[in-house]
Design the sequence.
């Protein structure tokens, strides 16, 4: 399909092949996805992250923006629909699901939904401001911040027609996924002439991730089994083996995108450390917006300030919610709470990733607990040139 589409476009633009080809292409348009020509200027963003890495927060930074149609974890539907699968098998299905959703084709969801599904059947639909705003729902003006609680109560509609309609009205479609462990399976999306894909890769100190995962350990059972390819792993080792997979995937993805990226990846990948966002939210988020071609608004600025300068570490109940917290404090919480023996074990398992991403290891419990010792390596050595992304942006936004 894709080859033919490419062929059609090439022939049409060179117009050397005359009427027959044009007619054939026109006919083919009627039958194929070709009948939705590439939407000029539409930008597709994948917020690629891992569990408990601050991606709900960064997701909201996109979702609340008035130009963004956002969905949280559409791949969840794939992971939960198929029995006892492994991540390797599922990734292509998730990729193809994303490809359709980026083009606002929600028919693909049909395979993964129960009978008589509604908008509210979509995983965490109320986290998407676009689904709480017209045309999907009349609750929240598009320029306002949405309220998840109210949206969940008041916004729903039969099927996904309104979702699809809403999707078409935005310049940016942003999907958040935690379910990819490499980039190669996504290459066809970069090469698809219908898509203009940017990846924002969010990482977090694995010691903080472990601590955060322990707070809601039970909720990871299904995902853990899939990440570990349904292998039989002693219960006490599961969290470490999963963490090791996650760390390996950070290295795999980052190295692939930075050292010798294929040409279609250049300028399309940006790595973000959660801790940098926590320390300097406005600067980091401005950079991210720049990278994907979104304007900062004063309302977004205010909101970002408010949610990153709140009341402290956050309770267990808040583990999956975005509330006003002190982001910087949250990012250090593991240092006082996590047993040093666990810290040591994670440091062993994630040595490569920590060194690549700029997280210093601690050698003793004392060092761990001395919060004045900074464990974040300044990012300068990891700063790459995003020049090409910026110049593309002026062309396409
Ligand atoms: C969707 O909404 C309809 C009507 O409001 C309801 O009868 C149906 O049970 C809902 N379906 C699901 C899967 O929630
Ligand atoms: C959302 O709305 C609920 C119900 O009206 C309210 O209690 C809550 O404070 C609101 N949340 C925010 C973040 O404004």
Sequence:
């Amino acid at each position: 399909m894709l080859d033919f589409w490419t062929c059609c476009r090439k022939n049409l633009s060179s117009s050397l092949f005359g009427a027959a080809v044009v007619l054939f292409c026109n006919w083919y348009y009627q039958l194929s996805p070709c009948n939705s020509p590439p939407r000029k200027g539409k930008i597709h963003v994948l917020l690629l992250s891992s569990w408990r890495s601050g991606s709900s927060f960064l997701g909201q930074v996109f979702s609340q923006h008035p130009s963004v149609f956002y969905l949280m974890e559409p791949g969840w539907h794939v992971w939960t629909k198929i029995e006892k699968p492994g991540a390797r098998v599922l990734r292509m299905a998730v990729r193809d699901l994303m490809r359709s959703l980026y083009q606002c084709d929600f028919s693909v969801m049909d395979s993964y939904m129960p009978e008589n599904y509604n908008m509210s059947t979509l995983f965490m639909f109320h986290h998407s401001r676009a689904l709480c705003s017209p045309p999907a729902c009349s609750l929240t003006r598009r320029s306002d911040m949405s309220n998840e609680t109210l949206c969940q109560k008041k916004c729903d509609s039969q099927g996904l027609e309104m979702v699809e309609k809403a999707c078409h009205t935005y310049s940016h479609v942003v999907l958040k996924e935690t379910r990819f462990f490499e980039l190669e399976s996504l290459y066809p999306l970069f090469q698809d002439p219908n898509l203009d894909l940017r990846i924002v890769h969010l990482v977090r100190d694995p010691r903080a991730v472990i601590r955060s995962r322990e707070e809601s350990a039970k909720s990871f059972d299904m995902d853990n089994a899939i990440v570990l390819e349904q292998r039989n792993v002693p219960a006490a080792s599961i969290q470490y083996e999963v963490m090791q997979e996650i760390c390996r995937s950070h290295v795999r993805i980052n190295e692939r995108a930075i050292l010798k990226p294929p040409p279609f990846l250049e300028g399309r990948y940006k790595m973000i450390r959660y801790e940098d966002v926590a320390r300097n939210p406005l600067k980091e988020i401005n950079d991210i917006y720049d990278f994907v071609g979104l304007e900062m608004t004063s309302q977004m600025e205010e909101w970002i300030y408010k949610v990153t300068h709140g009341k402290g570490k956050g309770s267990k109940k808040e583990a999956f919610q975005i509330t006003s917290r002190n982001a910087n404090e949250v990012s250090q919480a593991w240092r006082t709470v996590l047993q040093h023996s666990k810290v040591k074990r994670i440091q062993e398992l994630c040595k490569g990733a920590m060194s690549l991403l700029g997280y210093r290891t601690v050698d003793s419990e004392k060092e761990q607990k001395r919060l004045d010792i900074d464990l974040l390596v300044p990012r300068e050595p990891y700063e790459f040139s995003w020049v090409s992304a910026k110049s593309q942006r002026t062309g396409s936004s």
In short: Residues 235-258 form the longest helix (24 residues). The chain has 20 helices and five strands. The pocket of 2-acetamido-2-deoxy-beta-D-glucopyranose (ligand 1) is lined by residues 114, 116-118, 121, 158 (CB under 6 Å).
